């Protein structure tokens, strides 16, 4: 049996309880060595087979899967963050489907939510934005028509930009198609790792700040007014708002 497990962003304690348990019990572990903390391997059995997928291609990963299945072993495919976001698991699952091999996906904490947690922000502020766009800059991997940063920026929503920090100048240029130069932006390098860095600014000055910090990879870009603006109170804890669990407190006058 095969489990695709999200390891979380960096801090090894951010893996889920289910993910950690599967890792401890696995006969075979294939982990994304270029991104997953090697401290996760401390929980792997000494007699388990361990492979670093950073040095492997899809065919080689499949060879390990098929061999383990033939030997009736349990395999954990350990991906960084959440495996369903830029994890390239679809192609692996498609190959497993061809062989009628059963698998499960165990979600993980994505780097965009970890980065936001380090910033201590709420990405969906009432009256500011209720939408989060998860995307990337076109590079060696193109983006479909209509999904460029320039087009997406016109929504003025909260945006989490993956895999694009090396092109920060181009990122900012495209963002200006929708956002203003003064729109706040944050770059979180290696969120939750010991060497984490946080750089904040606006679209007009963030590129210079990022270059000064020598950040060229493994960084999340978060964009939007949620980073620095006033906002409306939510209805969730509004004493005048009734829910199925709580009675509303009557208003005494229109200004209350």
Automatic annotation (TrEMBL):
Belongs to the precorrin methyltransferase family. Gene3D superfamilies: Cobalt-precorrin-4 Transmethylase, Domain 1, Methyltransferase, Cobalt-precorrin-4 Transmethylase, Domain 2. The keyword Lipoprotein does not apply. This is Cobalt-precorrin 4 C11-methyltransferase. Signal peptide: none annotated. It comes from the Bacteria. Residues 1-206 form the Tetrapyrrole methylase domain. It comes from Ezakiella coagulans. Pathway: Cofactor biosynthesis; adenosylcobalamin biosynthesis. SUPFAM superfamilies: Tetrapyrrole methylase.
């Amino acid at each position: 049996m095969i489990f695709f497990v999200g390891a979380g962003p960096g801090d090894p304690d951010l893996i889920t309880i289910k993910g950690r348990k599967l890792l401890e019990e696995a006969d075979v572990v294939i982990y994304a060595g270029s991104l997953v903390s090697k401290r996760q391997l401390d929980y792997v059995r000494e007699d388990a087979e361990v492979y670093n997928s950073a040095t492997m291609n899809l065919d080689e990963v499949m060879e390990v899967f098929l061999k383990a299945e033939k030997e009736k072993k349990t395999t954990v495919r350990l991906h960084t963050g959440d495996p369903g976001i830029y994890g390239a698991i679809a192609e692996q699952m498609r190959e497993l489907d061809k062989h009628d091999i059963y698998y499960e996906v165990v979600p993980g904490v994505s780097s965009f939510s970890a980065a936001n947690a380090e910033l201590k922000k709420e990405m969906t502020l009432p009256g500011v934005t209720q939408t989060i766009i998860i995307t990337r800059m076109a590079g060696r991997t193109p983006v479909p028509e209509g999904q460029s940063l320039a087009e997406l920026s016109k929504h003025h929503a909260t945006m989490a930009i993956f895999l694009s920090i090396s092109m920060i100048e181009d990122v900012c240029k495209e963002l200006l198609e929708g956002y203003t130069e003064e729109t706040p932006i944050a770059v979180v390098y290696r969120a939750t790792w010991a060497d984490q860095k946080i750089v904040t600014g606006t679209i007009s000055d963030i590129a210079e700040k990022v270059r000064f910090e020598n950040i060229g990879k493994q960084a999340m870009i978060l964009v939007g007014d949620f980073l620095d603006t006033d906002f409306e109170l939510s209805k969730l804890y509004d004493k005048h708002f009734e829910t199925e669990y709580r009675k509303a407190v009557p208003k005494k006058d229109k200004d209350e």
